[in-house]
Write a structure and sequence with these properties.
Rossmann fold, globular, two-stranded antiparallel sheet, alpha/beta, 27% helix, 262 residues
Length: 262
Amino acid sequence: MRIIVCIKQVPGTSKVEMDPETGVLKRSGVDSKMNPYDLYALETAFRVKEQVGGSVIVVTMGPPQAQAVIKEAYMMGADEGYLVSDPKFVGSDVLATSFTLSQAIRKIGGFDLIICGKQTTDGDTAQVGPELAELLGIPHVAWVKNIYEVSNDKIIVEQDLAESYEVVEMGYPCLITIEKDIYQPRLPSYKLKLATAERAVNILTHKDLEEADDSLFGLEGSPTQVERIFPPEVKREQFLWEGAPDELVEKIVEKLHETKFV
């Protein structure tokens, strides 16, 4: 079985600069990490592989530095990795991102199961997985919290619907998005780090994709336009008071009233 896992490199800090004109995060030079939800997707893929055999292929879209998360996936057990990267993809919203990934996955070809994390911590839309399935024309189930059965011709999963759940059986090819805590993600292996140190990351650019229409990619292909984006203002004040307990209580109550907390 060929299992594709979509992963993403996200900022590892809340102190990220934005382009005031485009509203796009400036990712270059920012401390980054693998999207936490994707760790559960990867662990799910490894466990499916352990049951039915096959290979795990990771795909990420981002700047050249995003190769780091593919290398990390290699250290966890991924067999192959693709970075989808091109200046034409900069500024993509969820639709343009899903379209670009669908084109890349068509280029890779030969997949049975696609697994995505529920959402990313930098966008929190939870839309890319389902949109990707629609663009590929395959069935999908979002919010998977349990896998009951997996074989070479079908998968049976439990879908979390907040106040209820649904058990769904699908044949391949199909896509699922994974809730956190479905499994405990494994840590990168030092042994695999050494074994995969020379393993290449495959690069796919705009010219490698079948669709050549520039208007479908990046900012131009993004119907969602950000009107304004800005980092949250951090306002912190510290007060050090000394005195008897009654005096301190009075000062605290006075400050709470002054700041309209009470």
